[in-house]
Amino acid sequence: MVRFITRRLGQLVIVFAGLVVVAFLMSVILPGDPGRAAAGRNATVAQVAEARHRLGLDRPLLMQFGHYAARILHGDLGTSVFTHQSVLSDIRQVLPSSVELVVAGMIINLVIAVPLGVLAAYRRGRPADVVARLFVLVGAAMPAFWLGLMLQLIFADQLKILPLSGQLSFGVDVRRITGATTLDALLEGNFPAFGDALKHLILPAIALSASFIAVVARTVRSSMITALDSDYIVLARATGAKEWRVVVRHGLRNALVPASTILGMQLGWMLGATVLVESTFNRTGLGAYMVTGVLQNDLYAVIGSILTIGVVFLLANFAVDLIQLWLNPRLRPRRRTSAVPLVTSPAPAGGVS
Amino acid sequence: MSTPADRAQYGQNLLEIRGLRVAYGNSRRDAVEVVHGIDLSIRPGERLAVVGESGSGKSVTARAVLGLDTDASLSGSIRLGEHELTTLSRRRMRDIRGARIGLIFQDPLAALNPVMRVGWQIMQPLIIRGTGKREARQRGIDLLGRLGVRDAGARFDDYPHQFSGGMRQRVVIAIAVIAQPELLIADEPTTALDVRVQAQVLQLLDELARERGMAVMLITHDLGIVAGFAERVVVMRNGRVVEHGDVDSIYAAPKAEYTRGLLGAVPRLDSDPDRELATVAPDWDAS
User: Fold this and answer.
1) Cα A76 to Cα A67: distance, rounded to the nearest angstrom
2) Do β-strands B183-187 and B72-80 pair in parallel, antiparallel, or remain unpaired?
3) Looking at the predicted complex, does its ipTM rise above 0.95?
4) Residue A254 and residue B115: Cβ atoms within 8 Å?
5) Which of A18, A348, B97, B226 lies 20 to 30 A from A89 at CA?
6) Residue A347: its chain B contacts at CB < 8 A?
7) How many CB contacts within 8 angstroms connect chain A with chain B?
8) Do A250 and B116 touch (CB under 8 A)?
9) 3-state secondary structure A288-350
10) How far apart are CA B74 and CA A267, in angstroms?
11) Would you list the domain boundaries of chain A?
């Protein structure tokens, strides 16, 4: 067990190193001169050269990389030319709000996709299956930003049951503790504000999760079909178990093994996809921060955001590895070897190898 | 449907199948019938072998008894004691499964849930009927020990992949018999096992059936294991019963040509090694 975790952690470090290299190369290759961006739009040639020297951009590439890597390991992601603050503290400001959105999107994803996938598998080929598949396909086919606009149009503008945008209604105030509005309201014990923040979270979370639901529902459906066709399901029925128990306890536990892999990766993708949603709903967050960074040619802010998403991605996948260890006992190291005879056997020789 | 005379004649039977037809398919029109009206019966505590080649309908019959194929349409009659199983409600059928009829499968690896502990799986037939966890666990461990698993208490919390093939089949047997059914349907219980383990498992089934007075319906294509185990034999082919009778009389003087062919296809230690083994020709008349 310890070896398994150590090995996964080792892989984590290697992938992170790769991520740093790619992020660095992006800063070199991408158009836009960070020196000019740092010096300002109206800077003279001399001022730009001075900024380039200050940022170390006039040194050889390899040295630049060493410098860059050392800075990242110290938690220094550079300074944003737009906010004039360190990118790390900027991200610390906006990330909790995005995480809140991703968690909400993930909950919607799970609550809709898993039961839908199970239902589609259980009623495969019948109308319920067709409707379920069509439903998730429509969700996946709509671009997140367009779906966001449509949701705003229907639920905020026409039905007026949910707020249009933002994170809290006007006049509602929550002290910043973690940065995630719903959590802060809850920590403060301010339940009306919690409800208000939750209402603001619903539409963006739906818009964010729509395209992810299809993937999970289809994965669950296909692995559930495999599970439901297997002998152990027939055997579970033959013991007299109710269908619910057969499908959920016996079938779904098996079908969740492949689904958990997808879900782990989706967590990272979703954080990246906040780019498409946060601006539409006028929320603060990593996605909105990245959009601003790109528009302002703020290279360090963009790279810092990408690195953050990468790290979240890596951590989520590490968590999935641990979850799979629990879900799938075959991944765990064997406790025993079969060298010891395991059978008190009626046959003369005894022992089954 | 049965006359009083029938009931008197077969009344002592535990399981009685009369004119059973099994068809698959969605509509009546394109349904394919695979079992064409078979009769068979098992008395309490009796060992019956159902023999036939692949596709003869023997497994389909077994599944029909337990109502396990939801897309199969059944006609005819399957009686277990006082219950008519073909028309039983789903809820009543669940009460029969596991508690009155146990099932063993061919491939013990596929038959066990890979992500659940074997103990959990063994306890299921008791747990779902409201037995307490502690009692179910104790009965499970006792049974696993009786089935020859050494150190059953410690092995109870292992997973199927930590067991060898023969051991897994013991776990499957434990699941099938823990709720003390009167009838055990063993669908090719030894086919996936190596020869020595086959003998162990068969002997175990034999002992268990005697101890508990449990009837066994052994479904197999292997005539070699029938003689030492069953009292009566039903030979099936193409969804029909071609011959039935005592195991001794069928081995000594098979009436149906198909049965003779089947017996001729089994190599024997005392037969002439130069003699070619018979094959069961596909065009033989099924009746």
Assistant:
1) 11
2) unpaired
3) no
4) yes
5) A18
6) 196, 199-200
7) 116
8) yes
9) HHHHHHHHCCCHHHHHHHHHHHHHHHHHHHHHHHHHHHHHCHHHCCCCCCCCCCCECCCCCCC
10) 49
11) 2-73, 98-286
- Check if the beta carbon of residue A227 is closer than 8 Å to that of residue A251: yes
Selection from B1, B191, B197, B34 nearest residue A342 by Cα:
B197
In A, minimum Cα distance to B202 occurs at: A346
Task: Check CB contact of A341 with chain B, cutoff 8 Å.
Answer: yes
- Residues A98-286, CATH architecture: Orthogonal Bundle (1.10)
Nearest residue to A285 via CA among A90, A143, A150, A104: A90
Amino acid (1-letter code) at residue A329: P
Instruction: Indicate yes or no: CB of B125 within 8 angstroms of CB of A239.
Output: yes
Beta bridge mates, B243 = B235
Q: What is the pTM of this model?
A: 0.80
DSSP per-residue letters across B144-162: HHHTTBTTHHHHTTS-GGG
Q: Tell me the chain B residues in contact with residue A324 when contact means C-beta distances shorter than 8 Å.
A: none
How many whole angstroms separate alpha carbon B28 and alpha carbon B17? 23
Q: Per-residue pLDDT for A39 more than 80?
A: no
Select from A232, A242, A345 the Cβ nearest to the Cβ of B111.
A232
Mind listing the pLDDT tens digit for each residue in A211-259?
899 999 999 999 999 999 999 999 999 998 999 999 999 999 889 888 9
The top-scoring range by mean pLDDT among A101-110, A240-249, B240-249 is A101-110
Gap from B64 CA to chain A (nearest CA, Å)? 11
Q: What is the pLDDT of residues B116-133, one digit of tens each?
A: 999 999 999 999 998 899
Amino acid (1-letter code) at residue A273? A
